[in-house]
Each structure stands twice: as C-alpha cells, then as structure tokens.
Amino acid sequence: MESASIPSLALPVGVTLDRYIMHKQSSFPFATGELSQLLRDIALAGKIIHREVNRAGLIDLTGGMGIQNVQGESQQKLDVIANIRFKRALKNGGEACAIISEEEEDIIYTGNHHGKYIVAIDPLDGSSNIDVNVSIGTIFSIYRRVTPVGTLPTMVDCLQSGRKQVAAGYILYGSSTILVYSTGSGVNGFTYDNSLGEFILSHPDISSPKDGSIYSCNDGNWDMFDEPVKAYLTDCRRKQYTARYIGSLVGDFHRNLLKGGIYLYPPTAKSPQGKLRLLYEGFPLAFLAEQTGCVATDGVQPILDIEPTSLHQRTPLYIGAPVMVQALSGYLEAGQDLQILTGTVADL
C-alpha cells in the first residue's frame, strides 16, 4: 500500500455524543454534570432500542400485545419493551427523580429523590410501523424539578409549561438511527455508527428552511377537518406542494425540519381536543422547532405557551416552516372571524 493513502484511511471519525456533551457541559443550565449524565442515559437506552428494532423480525417483537395502553391505543410489543428500557436506564442513571411516560397512566417514581430532573417520554412513537419496516422514534423532554431535592416529586414537577424545558429531543430509528437534541442553544443531530457503538455528530447546528413545499397530514381524516384546514390543504394542492405522511410523527417532523415543510394534526369530530399528547409530543418537538427557526401552534397560541393540566393532555398541532404555518394561521383566523360574524361561536 502506498504511504500516500494512509492519511485518507486515518481520517477522524468525528465528534462522539459523549465528547460533545462533555465539551458543551459548561453551557448547560445549572451545569454540574447531572444533565450531561441524563442525556447519556437516554442515548444508552436509544442504542438498546436500535438493537431491538433491527432484530425485531427475528425474535418475534413485531405485532401487538392484544391490550390497550392508557391512551386507548393498541399496545405493540416494542412499545412495552421500549418503555421498560428507558425506565431502567433512567432509574439506574440516578439523575431523574420521576418519569412520565405516554405508556403509563401515573407518575413513575424512580426512587432517586435526590435527582434534580423530570423526564417526559414517548418511548416508541409510531410503533405500529415496525411490522412494515417504516421509521419509528422516541421523543423526550427534560425539566428541572421545582419541589425540594430529596422529597418525593409531585404533579407540580410534571405539569410544567413547555417554556420550562431544559432539554428535548428525539431518536429516529430509520435507514440510520439519529439522535437530535437541544438544551436551548441550538439543535444538533448525531448518527449512530454501528461499528463503533457510538453516536457521531452528523448534523451540527440544524437550521430549518423558512418556507417549504411539503405538507404532512392524515388525508383520511379530510371529512372530519374544519373548513379552514380544508381550505389551506386545497391551496397546498393548487400550488402543487408535495404530500408526505408516514404516520410516524418523528419521521415526518425530521424530514420537514431538514427539508422545509409543515406537519398538521388538526382537531377532528372524533378527537375535538386533538390527538397528539402535549407533554410527550407537542412540547418537545415545539422546543426543537423554535430552536431551528420553525413555528409550532395549536391554531390559537404557541404550543410552548399552553399550560398543561393533566399528564395525558392532548393538543392540535401545526408545526414547521414559519411561512407555511403563518399561511395556515391566516385561514384559521379567518374561520374564527367568520364564526363570530355568523354567530356560531358557542359563547355568543
């Protein structure tokens, strides 16, 4: 082998997640190492889920459990496994005093009463897609507890507004596995390298396009959408925008974040309060969206301004490129004005 080819074979592999966290620790709020460890614990559980997802078809992990979760949705085998994996990693890590999970009805106490953080998590979003090898993901957000350290966490710790998040992110298990997160000073993505067993920085300082031509919604719900939403979607079609909908929120959000687009899950006759969970989906993705220059609203106010009242509260969600969200908001506001003029608002 020629010596000239040696440098190309010895190129740096990149910055690992652990090294990045260590270098950035000084910029973390209240940086004393606990938040850094918490992010490592989440990354570790993500590596385990990556392994389980990749061999699901070989060890009979596909399909449903035959039961429903607290959301009234059919629970998949991988939902249960992911929930267990993340609970175990966060309990053993020692930094989380409590966990709230999309899969469980009540607060999960870790026994680490001296932990300073609360973790809200959707362990495996879009898990029904695993049977057909379509992207799925994990969504998480982290809050600093408000009750005294050393005491039992309470609902006050868990029902904080989205503005109180100190970190949020997601792990997308797709053609490659990528962890995207923010601590409030930009968003970075790390792709998992199977050969090294490490997440490597691959998407530094993500900035999303201000406009786009992709719209993502469940078109099968068309007949249940309000007229302003139908009008906006009709305009998207007239402009020959591209419709892209995976049925996995993480996958749809990630694509639109990088390429520019809007994700819509409006209220419907079946789900008048919306279908997506505020704490496990709305808040963390809105946190990331705002960090990259995007907008997230429920049609009335920014998602992050909503004050939560229950663990499994639902919300409509319109999230993505600001130009596209603002255009949709114009239709929604016009629809509200029309209701007032025609006297159809309930409180008139």
Question: Can you walk me through this structure?
Answer:
The chain has 348 residues and is an alpha+beta fold. The protein folds into 2 domains: 17-203, 2-Layer Sandwich (Fructose-1,6-Bisphosphatase, Chain A, domain 1); 214-342, D-Maltodextrin-Binding Protein, domain 2 (3-Layer(aba) Sandwich). The chain has helices spanning 6-9, 17-24, 34-54, 77-93, 155-158, 227-238, 249-259, 278-291, 322-342; strands spanning 64-68, 74-76, 96-101, 108-109, 117-125, 136-144, 165-173, 177-182, 187-193, 198-203, 214-216, 242-243, 262-265, 276-277, 295-297, 314-315, 317-320. The strands form 4 sheets. It has an 8-stranded mixed sheet, with helices on both faces. A hairpin with a 4-residue loop joins strand 9 and strand 10 (198-203). Helix 3 packs antiparallel against helix 4 and helix 6 crosses helix 9. It is globular, with a radius of gyration of 21 Å. The N and C termini lie far apart (83 Å). The model is unreliable at 344-348 (pLDDT under 50).
